[in-house]
């Protein structure tokens, strides 16, 4: 018959156990995703998907018209009219970005924009804070009053404005010194540690959903800021098109985990306090840009 333990004896038994042995083991990210339902996933609008085909493979990028409607509209026009086809990736800066567009330095030799606009307003942030659209995370953000997600995109807010955060995989519109000098023709993707100092300084227009490996492995440029010094160093763009303009058989089939559900909140907690057997210490914190947003092929 088991011996009844006094409270003091019970505490001594706990103290003798290995650290964490009596803590409840939380679910892992894999377990949470396995238990997810169809309602936890969304299918991106094909009119918001850019398909970037390179010699090494394909990257699929979701546009964010909620944050930059005029830039996204111009990018759609450029893509529909094949503006980037035959152009190139001209920059790959270590731990920072890859950038593509027209490599011509002489404006007289630049590729025509077709029916796209040459001038757009700066769209660094969206005015206001819509708490019905903003799904916050509890962790402190060093770059804003609150961090979270809006329509599947990592975002931040000071409650006067809301913006798309510069995380790994973020797509931005390159500009010169003038705030309104971007028109979507020069695009870059963050391939290094999240450069959040760029927040509120440049128009961000989307995020890579799939195929980052084809961008992050590109050879680093040897010129200033990672630009390629010779034409043969550049990676040609085979095609950059909207998914909605592609034949049905060529469209990407993707589902993206929603960021406004209890399942996503559980996933964030699983990454905040890792329950994988390898982890001996629970961090109790996670950075906005380290929260993964899962992408899968439809079942």
From TrEMBL:
SUPFAM superfamilies: Cyclophilin-like. Its EC number is 5.2.1.8. This is peptidylprolyl isomerase. Residues 48-242 form the PPIase cyclophilin-type domain. It comes from Arenimonas maotaiensis. One of its GO terms (molecular function) is peptidyl-prolyl cis-trans isomerase activity. PANTHER family: PEPTIDYL-PROLYL CIS-TRANS ISOMERASE CYP38, CHLOROPLASTIC. Keywords: Isomerase, Rotamase, Signal. It holds the Pfam family Pro_isomerase. The keyword Isomerase applies. The keyword Isomerase applies. Residues 1-23 form the signal peptide.
């Amino acid at each position: 018959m088991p011996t009844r333990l006094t409270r003091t004896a019970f505490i001594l038994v706990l103290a003798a156990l290995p650290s964490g042995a009596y803590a409840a083991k939380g679910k892992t990210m894999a377990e949470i995703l396995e238990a997810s339902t169809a309602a936890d996933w969304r299918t991106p609008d094909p009119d918001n998907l850019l398909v970037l085909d390179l010699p090494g493979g394909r990257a699929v990028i979701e546009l964010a018209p909620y944050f930059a409607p005029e830039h996204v509209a111009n990018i759609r026009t450029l893509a529909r009219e094949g503006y980037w086809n035959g152009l190139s990736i001209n920059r790959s800066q270590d731990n920072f970005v890859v950038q593509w567009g027209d490599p011509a330095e002489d404006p007289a030799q630049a590729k025509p924009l077709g029916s796209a606009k040459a001038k757009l307003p700066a769209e660094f942030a969206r005015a206001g804070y819509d708490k019905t659209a903003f799904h916050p995370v509890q962790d402190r953000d060093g770059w804003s009053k609150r961090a979270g997600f809006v329509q599947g995109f990592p975002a931040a807010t000071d409650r006067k404005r809301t913006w798309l955060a510069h995380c790994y995989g973020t797509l931005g519109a390159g500009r010169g010194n003038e705030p309104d000098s971007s028109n979507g023709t020069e695009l870059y993707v963050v391939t290094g540690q999240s450069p959040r100092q760029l927040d509120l300084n440049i128009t961000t227009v989307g995020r890579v959903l799939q195929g980052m490996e084809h961008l992050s492995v590109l050879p680093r440029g040897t010129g200033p800021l990672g630009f390629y010094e010779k034409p043969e160093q550049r990676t040609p763009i085979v095609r950059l098109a909207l998914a909605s303009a592609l034949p049905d058989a060529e469209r990407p089939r993707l589902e993206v985990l929603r960021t406004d559900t209890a399942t996503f909140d559980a996933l964030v907690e699983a990454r905040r306090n890792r329950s994988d057997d390898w982890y001996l210490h629970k961090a109790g914190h996670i950075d906005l840009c380290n929260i993964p947003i899962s992408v899968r092929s439809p079942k």
